[in-house]
# Entry
Amino acid sequence: MTGIGPLEPGEGTWAHEPVEARPAPRPRRRRTLLILATACAVLAAGGALWATRPRPAPPPELPFPAQTVTVTFLADRTTAPRRLAFDVRLAVESGPAVTVTRVSQPYAGLAAESEPPAPFRTAPGSSRVITVTMRVTECGRVPKNAALPFLEVTLRNTRAIQTQSFILGPRYTRYLSRALGDACGESAPSSPKPPRRLNG
# Structure
């Protein structure tokens, strides 16, 4: 029996369903990814520059106050009974400002005070005149002839506090010996305490 029926598909001629194509990335998402990638690159470059930047040298260490201060004997003042006074010049050559917290002397039989009274501050590159007044409290404990007397000054700046002994020279030595001799007559001499070392 012959006849024409529906055509059968031949081998390899079956129709395939079209594969569903992936949707193209949205433009907004693509822009966001690009911004994030750029930001990461900028941060990485900035970190590399920061890590390899030239670093400034550390600032020089501040000097101790005793390294920048000089004290010079100027002149004696009128001497009253058992009381002597003289002027010195205190100069701060460099560094930070220096504060004088105490002015004293090495003899047990003398009390010392200053004008202006401590504490007082002196700026770098400047100086001030200080009047030191000494009062004899016990003649038996002061020297008749002072040899190399010194003045003790406690100094403070932003680095340290130090007590420095300043030897004021032969004019001060002669003045002090004469003034103490006038105040105490022929009292027996005594030796001053040795100069203090720096506390810093």
In short: The longest helix spans residues 27-51. The helical segments are 27-51, 170-184. Residues 65-184 form a domain with the Immunoglobulin-like fold (CATH 2.60.40.1230).
